[in-house]
Amino acid sequence: MSIYLLVITLIVHLNLNIAEETQIPSISKKAFRLIDSDCFCSYNQSINLLSCSPYLQNSSSFFLSSSNHSLINITLNDCTYSNNHFHLPKIENKNIDYLRLNDINHQDYLVFGRTSFNSYSINHLYIIYTYIQPITMLLISNETFSSSSSSIALSLRTLYIDSCYLVTLYQPFTRLVLLESITFINIHEFSWYDFQQQMIHLPQLRSIYLGEKILTTTNDIFNVLSCQDLSPQWTFTYRLVQTCSCQLISFLTTIHPAENFYQCPNSNQTIDFIDDICQFHGKEYQIRNHTNAFCNQCLSKQCSNGTLCGESYDSESDCLLLSTYDYETIRTRIPLTSHTKQYLFRETHDYLNMNPNKTLEPNAFNSFATILIDSNQNRTENSPVQVQMFHQTFAAILNRPWSPEIYSSSSTELRMLQELIISLEQSIKNINDGNNKFEFQSKLISTVSVPFPTNQPLPDMFGWKITEDNIITSNITNSEPSNSNITARVFLEFNTSQSYPSNCNNS
Parallel, antiparallel, or unpaired for β 447-451 and 437-441? Predict the structure, then answer.
């Protein structure tokens, strides 16, 4: 009997030791460093939460692999990404229920790109900033929610963004086909037009909240609701001040009260909005008893495409932009870096080609030229695709009519023109076509090396063209017909009495 009991006792102790050995590794791991960030991440198994913060460096963490949850929650607080490009911590074989980002790269800028969310599905995304100047700039690229690079487009149901300057390139939100609820609060220079363009066709969207905790006084964007803009399926809250205008008065006379909310005609949709004030050039006006005062001038005013007329009863009317995407000041919005270059290049190129006959003004020229000049600052990064993008954008600038002020020697545009030609020189050098080079100089511009037949005399007019496959053909004439694969045609007029060109023309 004693021998039998002894054996049982040994087995019990053995099982206890095994249990202890399986638990110890799961709680002994230290918080891990988030790559390219000052944050450390720690997983709490009891509440199923992965927390990342600069203040968790000495924290302990459960192993993520020890969790039996297929969905986990992630919160990032006060993290700073050194390359300004957001990416998630690695959570292999799991997906995300709630992702909360609090003050990430606060008062700087942050880019969401193709690899930001990896291949994880995410159900609810909250991006929240403390409203402190300078306000954080958040760029969401056209590839952020691409189904080929991320599962978030086919999983996200809630999107909440608070207190930032939001730049969305190529309408990325239109990919969120399962989105049910969206909240935008304190979006700097918010544009109802830009927002509505992305949201109107989302099939599952039901709840929309647009609001401000701090009323902006600098937004010169035309923001007025229209019943035609609203989907019948929405429950819509618009706690923003609308622009004083004829369109606002028309909207107010169209809708009718329905209990505590308003409705558009022939619709069951509910609308909650601020209906007693409007704003014009940063000043608020009472609407009651002044409805006719917002239409006197705008009824006869002609506004160009992309703008609408706003007015008040104590100042002149004005044509206000519908969109915040003023491409001609793009360079002032988001810095040009290795992570933003491809998006800004594409946006600039598309804008230039969408408006081929619009005169290029000095501000626009400086903006576009700066993007091209900056693109060659770190020349080791320039891939063949980037070189081609440079030539295409340069060609689009050449094809636009230029304002005479750009050529003025008393302005900064001349310096920008000189630096632009230098960047073109560098871009040409990046093309390894094996051709002989002829070097010529300009006192005002730069020294540029381009292919040129060495057995022919110097012409009075020298031109070259760059094709889409980056092949340069020299000694073309101004009358030579263009074709679809030419991305740049540049002509330089020679002063035959000098050893350098006297001026530069573009076409």
Answer: antiparallel
